[in-house]
Specification:
Two copies of one chain form a homodimer. By secondary structure, the first copy, chain A, is an alpha/beta fold. Chain A is about 35% helix and about 15% strand. Chain A has two domains: about 5-145 and about 310-365 and about 395-415, Rossmann fold, CATH 3.40.50.450; about 160-305, Rossmann fold, CATH 3.40.50. In chain A, helix 1 (about 20-35) crosses helix 12. The longest helix of chain A has 19 residues, at about 160-180.
Chain lengths: ~425, ~425
């Protein structure tokens, strides 16, 4: 169907990453380069911003912005347009949201709608695309992938993962050095994000150098966890070395499907179940069973927002995926998403392609079984070959620093709403 | 007393920082430049390494090291020589440790002994110095200051603090951006190190930019904490803005002296008291009392080991303090420590001086009362003026990166022991 309008709408949704703004910058850059886009609207807080008609006029903002705005945007964490978590009904039995959304799109004369996000966000743009097709809308709907979890199918890896992996690897290395200084046996347990897929915890393996072999044990949710096997692993290592660094996914589970966590029995003084995760549980477990020095560290949200440790490979690819989404839409694509295909590990070569949103929405990609060792306490070299290229590169130009801090674009539009 | 021997012994002790190896590099650099030092021994794991006679031959290592070794050492986290926590008895009623230590020093023909560390470590070197004086030893004993806690008296600030402060400020800024993306009220509580002094939590104020005012509340151990005042602060802010970022010292206490923590009632499934700190307690408190979205993050050991975010001001000063310790000893000083005097905030100017170890050992410097606001929930501009120069500067030359990771010197000598 030929396009009716030239205006463009962009939104972001789901959890933040340090690379999602790079995709926004890529769409904006390609829009300007194409000369074929009219107004560019940014919906604030994802699809909820469309429903509540809260927009940034990005084309005007871009015209008024100082030089280097797109570069600063590319290097900034979180989401410039804000996020939401909002599930649309099935487009075959549409809620009133659909009519409301399409009415706004018509009023703004939108020809292209880009939605940057992970599994759930791709569900949103897929449903809008299906609804549009059912109602013969000429609007072109494109997804743009991102998720630090790296659990999107159909793409070799997801934007945001490489930067999170670099933060994790560098942090694990630095914490390992911190651990080695005392002459007494110690166990450091590092809890890493990943509820269902272990890609992020697996990335801790990239911390290994010729001198430091930490993490010495890695546990992923793809394998059942066993307290007994874990204890045996720790005791075995402690008989040979003083310091053990352990990386665990927050989502590790026992064979019965229950999470490894201190949740169940612990209550705080309000009688509120304490939200201790796998790391804290294992810390107590080692303290009780072995009694050696033990500490747990939760990397927490820094792994998804530490823009100062972004991988330039990740930022560059995210930017290119944004450009590809825009250019694909101009070519007539809709209901699709640009993805990354790997051509070779070493030298690292990729190419971009497009796939249907049906292939990517609501599905999860796990760490392949053959990339986990037989004992289930480490990853194999195949994983290293896969992940190592993704954390390469210091972003160029180096992000600006002022007063010791990285300089990011103002997000006052989010704070005022 | 004139010096008898030309050999030098160096050790490190206490908690790690990212700047303590810079002081070691400074001592080594000044030793070489002086031409007056013979063999240079590094005791492994502090004074315990002297007692157990575990040494690195640093002069030989330095001769064999590749170009750039001292620079890599200057930029590396934790402790190249390893650490210990070991308390010597009073030198007036000496344990057998003293005779053992001085016997080793005699055998190694040590003329100069440098001990790099914080409050407790300065107690060790002060005691050795006193014992040496009592026994007419010609050995010159010098302390070199370090502590991320910044609680050493007699020095304007302590090496390690500026880099930890930079990590904290950058992390708080990045986490604030992460927080702003959702359109629902939220509270983020960031727990920062500092059991008795609030210098590190105060440094979170440096995260404020013209766009982001996080952290919106800061609580230090220098003021009594009150659940009611905290709740009132949060509710007041939530009536005016959506997102609140709170920085708290791990050591905040109620008026009765008890720590703010979830320790007291919480037990895990082993009946082991869970080690939840102030952040986790306040998270539950807000969840119970307000019910809005709330999360707590513990910066944990990254704040003392994230070398990739070191402040060059800090590393340069730490290096200079190491040089000053060596040169001071060559000038005949003993029982002393080089310290930093501030000449002006803006432009930032310092000079180094020496003070007696008696002035610095076993004492704590707190955040001055006048640098905390009246409500006890923020720091004043005077604190900002003080702390801002300390986080300035990206280390030059920029540390090496390889495969996405910072490159640090091997510490295999620590791992093999």
């Amino acid at each position: 169907m030929s396009i009716q309008y030239q205006n463009c709408l962009i939104a972001q949704s789901g959890g933040p990453t340090v690379a999602i703004n790079a995709s926004l910058a890529g769409i904006l850059s390609a829009s300007r380069a194409s000369g074929k886009i009219g107004r560019i609207y940014g919906a604030l807080n994802g699809i909820q911003g469309v429903l509540s008609e809260r927009f940034l006029e990005l084309d005007a903002l871009l015209t008024a912005a100082p030089d280097g705005f797109l570069t600063a945007l590319k290097h900034s964490p979180a989401m410039y347009l804000g996020s939401c978590r909002y599930k649309l009904s099935d487009p075959d039995t549409p809620s009133s949201d659909y009519a409301a959304i399409f009415s706004v799109l018509e009023r703004l004369q939108i020809g292209y709608f880009f939605y940057i996000g992970g599994n759930d966000s791709m569900d949103t743009i897929k449903k809008l695309s299906h609804y549009g097709a059912l109602h013969h809308s000429p609007i072109r709907f494109m997804g743009v992938p991102k998720t630090i979890d790296n659990d999107l199918p159909a793409t070799d890896h997801a934007p945001g993962y490489g930067s999170a992996a670099r933060h994790i690897a560098a942090s694990v290395l630095e914490m390992a050095y911190d651990t080695y200084i005392y002459n007494t046996p110690s166990v450091l347990i590092i809890e890493i994000m990943g509820r269902d897929a272990g890609w992020l915890a697996a990335a801790s393996a990239l911390a290994r150098t010729k001198d430091s072999r930490a993490p010495h044990l890695i546990y992923l949710p793809e394998r059942n966890f066993s307290n007994e096997a874990f204890l045996s692993d720790i005791k075995g290592l402690l008989s040979r070395q003083k310091h053990i660094v352990v990386a665990v996914s927050e989502g590790i589970r026992y064979a019965d499907g229950s999470y490894v966590s201190a949740d169940t029995a612990a209550k705080d003084q309000f009688g509120h179940a304490t939200l201790n995760g796998a790391g804290k549980f294992l810390e107590h477990f080692i303290a009780c069973e072995i009694g050696c020095k033990v500490r747990s560290v939760e990397l927490n949200i820094l792994q998804r927002c530490a823009a100062h440790l972004a991988s330039s490979t990740d930022l560059d690819e995210s930017f290119r995926l944004g450009e590809a989404a825009l250019n694909g839409a101009l070519e007539g694509r809709s209901g699709q998403i640009p993805v990354i295909l790997r051509l070779s590990d070493n030298p690292y070569q990729i190419q971009l392609a497009y796939t249907s949103l049906d292939e990517i929405a609501n599905q999860e990609k796990h760490v392949p079984s053959e990339w986990i060792n037989e004992a289930g306490n480490d990853v194999t070299n195949d994983f290293i070959q896969y992940a190592l290229p993704l954390i390469q590169g210091i972003p160029q130009p180096v992000p600006n620093w002022e007063n010791g801090l990285p300089v990011f674009p103002s997000v006052c539009h989010l704070l005022q709403t």
